[in-house]
Amino acid sequence: MAVRIIEKKIEDILSIMRNPAQVRNAGTLAHVDHGKTTTTDSLLMGAGLLSPKVAGKALAMDYVEIEQLRQMTVKAANISLYFEYEGKPYIINFVDTPGHVDFTGHVTRSLRVMDGALVVVDAVEGVMTQTETVVRQAMEEMVRPVLFINKIDRLIKELRLSPNEIQQRIVEIVKDFNNLIDMYADPAFKDKWKVDPAKGQVALGSALHKWGVTIPQAAKAGLKFSNIVDAYEKNYVDELAQEFPLYKAILNMIVEHVPPPNVAQKYRIPKIWRGDINSPLGKALLEADPDGPTVIAVSKMNKDPHAGLIATGRVFSGTIREGDEVYLINAKTAKRVLQTYLYMGPNRIVIPEVPAGNIVALLGVDDARAGETIVAASIKDVAAPFERMKYISEPVVTVA
Ligand code: GDP
What letter would DSSP give residue 235? Predict the structure, then answer.
């Protein structure tokens, strides 16, 4: 199977990145085996890979084989997708999150650079202990969740549920999920962040069979649970996937319900940053001001066999450019940025600058580690780092 390549001029990509309303930063969280990897594959295949258009140059490739893509995505710290929604282009960053909950805080480091989380729940297993752990971690970092109820095919083929029973099962999962939000969300967001299927904050589908819908989409198209059961019983699941591709349901949900970076930073910064929010720097961070001082939170360090150590992080304020002098607050060292890159699909491409609100890959900051705060060298004496991250271990299960 092949993945499309979508060519865009660098200037066009930069103009999207400069408008926070057209940027979303999200990631996928799930209990192990609930379908995080399969869902991500399905998003990549559906949306296609963005590639820079170089004037006068023949395109290196016009599609990528799925196996090749797998190899590229295994170690990607971020995958940027290009998606058009209601005639408007968006860049949606999918930050890599670890496949399993661990005790080292990796999930939290990824959460720091995201504003929204796609939580995947297996329709048969429902909300499990790791679902609870990741939702709790997301709430600590003020990351807004949306829900994907996956493996609906299992309810039909394995449990042989009727359309009514399927609906009941979905209602139960949504209720359990909202209970987690009720338990762990900041009081100001408890009600706002509970997911409502009628508002398109829940998608249901099968990542394996690549179909998915939200309730408003289904209602608009006249799709009923009985049609979905029929699709499996009468063998037209491929048609279902053609008409209701999973990537559209999920990316629509993310564009509509994950806040853009400048909106999210207004409530996230007071919680995740240690400095004075009334200072000029604090204000630049609250606004995600591209003209403010540079502040970047690093989520991951990767070793590139050719280039060397690559830092991936989120620009919270300012605009980072090649040649910039920066200061690493935790490592207490000054560095010079040798190159700035943007993730295009799972590839990195050189880009002259990356403004606030976006995910950047940096070459030249070798002493950085995940969790580092990088700032413009000019503000090193006044800059505060981000809060230490809380490591949440799994809830203790007591058997009665
Ligand atoms: P992860 O651990 O959350 O990344 O889960 P994976 O994406 O690796 O999926 C775990 C297993 O569930 C694999 O065997 C997948 O093929 C399977 N799986 C994923 N999505 C679906 C689905 O929609 N339906 C069914 N029946 N199986 C699925």
Answer: T
- Decide which of 44 and 210 is more confident: 210
The pTM of this model reads 0.92
Task: Measure 374 CA to ligand 1 centroid, in angstroms.
Answer: 37
- What's the pLDDT score for residue 59? 47
The answer, yes or no, to whether residue 29 has pLDDT greater than 50, is yes
CB 282 within 8 A of CB 96: no
- Give, using CA atoms, the residue closest to atom 2 of ligand 1: 33
Strand partners for 361: 312, 341
Cα–Cα dist 50/93, whole Å = 12
Between 276 and 77, whose confidence is greater?
Answer: 276
**Main-chain phi, psi angles of 116, to 5 degrees:** -140, 150
CA distance 277 to 275: 6
CB 195 within 8 A of CB 177: yes
pLDDT digits (tens, 9 = 90+) for 361-383: 999 999 999 999 999 999 998 88
pLDDT at 348: 83
The dihedral over CA atoms of 208, 28, 132, 393, expressed in degrees to the nearest 10, equals 120
Q: How is residue 182 written in tokens?
A: 């009720």
Both tokens of 105, joined, read 């805080």
Residue 166 structure tokens: 């399927």
**How far apart (Å, rounded) are the C-alpha atoms in residues 13 and 138?**
29
Please list every protein residue whose CB sits less than 6 Å from any atom of ligand 1.
30, 32-38, 99, 150-151, 153-154, 206-208
Looking at residue 337, its pLDDT comes to 98
What pLDDT score was predicted for residue 400? Answer: 38
Structure confidence by residue, pLDDT tens digits, 14-28: 899 999 999 999 999
Ligand 1 atom with the smallest distance to the CA of 41 is 7
Q: Which atom of ligand 1 is nearest to the CA of 206?
A: 23
List of E strands, the chain: 2-9, 23-30, 49-53, 63-65, 78-85, 88-95, 116-122, 144-150, 202-206, 211-214, 295-304, 308-317, 319-321, 325-328, 333-336, 339-344, 347-350, 353-355, 359-363, 373-376
* 204 Cβ neighbours under 8 A, 6+ residues apart: 123, 148, 149, 150, 152, 170, 212, 213, 214
pLDDT, the chain, mean: 89
Distance from the CA of 36 to the center of ligand 1, in angstroms?
7
Q: Using CB atoms within 10 A of its CB, is residue 320 exposed (0-12), middle (13-18) or buried (19+)?
A: buried
